Structures are given as structure tokens and as C-alpha cells.
Amino acid sequence: MTQAERSLQLTNALRDAGVRITRQRAALLEVLSVADDHPDAIELHRRAEIASPGISLSTVYRTLTALEEQGVIHRHQFEGASARFEHANADHHDHMIDVETGEVVEFCSERIEKLQAELAKELGYEIVHHRMELYVRKTQN
Ligand SMILES: [Zn+2]
After folding, report:
1. Which domains does the chain carry?
2. pTM value > 0.90
3. Which keywords annotate this record (predicted)?
4. How far is the CA of 36 from the centre of ligand 1 (A)?
5. Annotated binding residue at 92?
6. Would the annotation count 103 as a binding residue?
């Protein structure tokens, strides 16, 4: 999905939620559609403010909630950190969280995915959804 498609998807989702697309909200949607990291609301607010000075933090929070309810963004509540957001149409991946810097690193392991499915199957289940978070610290070398 291109950035333009992402932007359109977010805009449509907000419309579907009955939220008017103001210039401020459009700025936030733009910021969300280009973000390839996992910013929190404060950081999204900071970025949106560059394009649309005066956007309030509560507008950011309310818009994020509406988008999350529409299923077009994911909210990650990692331990010891404020909620982080990312658009929902990325390929499946899991996250490592650097406990010292708060940096979020994406990873996906075929081996782990397969192992999880096998473990669930052994216990008579199929996986509906999973979330894996590794809390990590950089090794010195
Ligand atoms: Zn991610």
C-alpha cells in the first residue's frame, strides 16, 4: 500500500466514523500515513503541529481513538511506555522494545510463527491472533 493509499484509507475511515476532516485532522492523517516507526500521541502531535500549528493534543487523542475503532491503526501498549501507534495494513510483524531507549524494532521470524502454530495445534488450538513483545537491551560489543 502506497503512502497516498494509506492516507486515503485513514481519511475514509475517519469519515465513516462520522468525524469531519478538518485541516488539523488532515495533517495528523498525513503524519500517520508516512510514519514508519511507532510514535506515541505526543510525538504524533509534535509532527502534526509542524504542518498545522495549533492542533490540540485532545484532537490528536480523539482522532486516534476513532481510527483505532475503525481498525485502520493499531495501538500498542508496551510495558513502561505510553501507547504507540502504527497503521494497521503493514504485514504481520512482532516487536522488540529497547528498555533503555524506548525504541521499537520490528521483526518477523518464520521459525517462530511456525513454532507457535505447532504449539497451539499440539494443545488442540489454532491461532486466531498473537502478539509477541521482546524487551531488549543492546549488548556491548
Ligand atoms: Zn510495528
Report:
1. 3-87 (1.10.10.10), 94-136 (3.30.1490.190)
2. no
3. Cytoplasm, DNA-binding, Iron, Metal-binding, Repressor, Transcription, Transcription regulation, Zinc
4. 8
5. yes
6. no
